[in-house]
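Sample intake — FtsK/SpoIIIE family protein
Collected from: Lentzea jiangxiensis
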Amino acid sequence: MSRRDDRRRRIEDAFAEFQRAVSAALGSVAREHRALATEHAEDMFELTVRGMGVDKAVQDAALRNVTPFLTVDEKRTGNPRQAPLSMAQFADRLAQIKHDWQQSYREWTTSGPDQLTALVNSVAAGPASWPYEAWLGHPGTHDGSQGVPELWRIGTGVVTSAPETSPFPVAVPLLDQAHLHISSTPDTRQLADTLVESLLLRVLSHFQPGLVHVHVWDVGQLTGSLPGLYPLTRANLLTVHDPARLHELLDELSEHIRQVHTKVLVDGHLTVRSVSGEGRRTEPWRIAVLFGNRKALKEEHLQQLQRVARNGLACGVQLFIVDIPITINSPVETVSLRDDGSATCTMTGKHVAVTLDPALPRTLVPRACAAIAEKREERRSRMSKFGDLLPDRPWTENSSAGVIAPVGFDDGEQVCVQLGDTSPHALIGGPSGSGKTNFLYAMLGSLCARYSPDELELYLLDFKEGVSFAQFAPGRKDPSWLPHARLVGVNVNTDREFGVALLRFLSDEMRRRADAAKQHEVTKLEHLRAEDPSGRWPRIVAVIDEFQYLFGERDQVTAAATQLLEDVARRGRSQGIHLVLSSQDVSGIEGFWGKSAIFEQFTVRIALPKARRVLAEPQNDAAVELPRWHAVINHESGVKPGNEICRIPDSTSKGTMDLLQTQLWRHEPGQAPGLFDGSKIPLLDALPDFLDLRPGDASPTVLLGQVIDVAGSAARVRFARTPGRNIAVIGSVVQDAAAVLGGAAASLGRQHEPHEAAFTLACLVDEAMPSALHLAKRLSADGHDASVVGIDGIRELLDSTAARLQAINTGTADSPPSPHYLVLYGVDAAQTLLEQKDPATRSSGVDSLRTVLKHGPENRTHVLGWWRGVQRLKASLPPGVHDDIGAWVAFDVQGKELLSLGPEQVMAWSPRPRRGLFFDRFEHSRPQVIIPFDTGEAS
């Protein structure tokens, strides 16, 4: 072999080796490429299946079916590709995906549907979720006190992506929580109607007839929408609105929302539900169903609808919007219907397919609505009684934010009077026989049954000559009293000062509360109670019947009453003090109507039949044609849109208010109220101020009568050892004078130990002798030295007393001064006798009297005298000098006669039976009207 051939052979061998190496490398690369391609295909398969979801992947045509298009290699080999889901190379990945899929849903599959079913059953009991067989045709009984279902069933849902499609109930939030927006297609509009009808009947069948009112508006038809519900129209539970008058429906809803905000959502409440609390729903729901045509509303209608939606839920206005494009800045639940009949809703999300409940049986729906309407009519026509105003359990309400009192019924529903920060005071008007007393009893009974005495106090004042409020205080026949009453005043038509005293007490209480609020850095009673939970801060309601008597004359009483009333009316609201003023005729009260600041505070107006000037006349004349036993309740200062007309049940017959009072008294009587009866004379021995007197005070207190005030306190004079501490009684009536002198002496005797003080009773008029003897007997029984002298002994008494005083003043007395009280009956009757001068000393009995009056008080000798006229009193005093009489009580004396003895306010005094004018120049800036005591002389 030549070298050349050998070289060629080597080259060929090397090339062959190279070819083998290259082939091996290419084969390895090809295998690696195929492996990578397979892995990539598996990854893409897994990514696609996981991304689509196993449930959708197995239904996907591209993954489930073999493609009809073949590649060149598939044509060459005759081996077409398989469907991806059937390819063996994806089997492991598919198995793993299905395993992971099943594992991820394992917890849901095991317990999810059951948990949702239990949840719906727990928050949507009764018609809210039960099958229609259990409730359709049975009117509801719930009044809202048992709570409101949080969810309302619409159908059954399944999670379409789950390995096992276990069904569960689907329910949506509605009343007070969210509006409902339903979107349908032309083919599923009937399903939308069915859904609306089913939800409305669930709601109507859950609550008492009358608690839900339905309004229907359909852009496409005047009638025909929800025909099965039409029997509700005869009970005014369903209103169908004109398609061309959407604005009227929206205006009606807007006005209702406004009234709820001004009348119900007061005192910090944000929703009607929070006002009702755990009690009965006081404001009915209004469900407005709006059917559209998938076209936008007019811009003005859209904006108004959005405002209603934004503010409606808090006021009990619920919207069902069907096929109206709208965006709402308020909670809304959306249900979208598909062409295949299934639906999705925002409550469950897009991964749950909802199958709506089937339509209710066509024949049963009208029957069910008819039963609801009949029940509603039954409630409306039923004659409500006083007991229907009362709660099931007494004293369960809280008065922090105000008080609410059902007073009557309108179509079977309660109508309430509310007193709080926004409606602070009430004005009631109605002529005689219109039922004013009956209304007051209904209101007071309703209040007292709801609020305990720690939550509410009552101050009751009746100016007319009657006993409307007398039963609320303990009496001879009925020992019970109203536990909430702290003061009861009756027969005070002549004692207008008592009305002023009540207003002054309320003004003082208002300031006390304001000071406490300031210390806690708050401004309202509600906040004060929160900051000072241990304090006792009840709401105060003061009822003044026939209050026009308070403004009956142009005098100081009217001026004071007007000033105090304005103060309490203007500032009392924030301190929880509320006034209820009632009158037969308020039109002529100049002192009241002339003060707009007063009248504007009385935003609550109650007009009884034929009442004048209470409502905003002449625009509001609702009271003119009002039938008997009815009233107009208005919380908006009497303007017509605020009218609520209701029937007031009989509250004065036996077994009504009297029975409630007895029941509450037995439950917890509390302290008996104070009673001021203008027709009765206070008994001295029962007066707390008299019973509190004890011996030991160097300056004893003289009680002259009862002051006309809230506390029923006594008019008093301190007998200090200072000049002028003598008392004069001026008047011609023996009974009045004897009552004052007897009460004064008896109160003095109670403050001395036996035989410590001497009482000398000089009876200078025969008609006073029985009184003098009765007083002497009483003082002697208490262990005091009491003697009675007649007109023949008066000169000696005065002369000896004057001589003893002179001896004390000159230091020649043989003993220190001891208490000595000269009780003189009819001093002026001895004037002629006393004016006679002693021939030896040239001094008269008048001189001795003047000496006793001037020097006696410093030496513990005091005169309690009765003069039968002002000029007769002056005759006993030094000319122009009246200082020796420091206190006086005048009866049948005109005010101008007293001007020289007291301040200018005495000019307004006009005498009236069994009333005296009392003035102590050492203590008073203005005189007081007092009632003399009953000292027991008649018995």
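Post-analysis note: Residues 66-77 have pLDDT under 50 and may be disordered.
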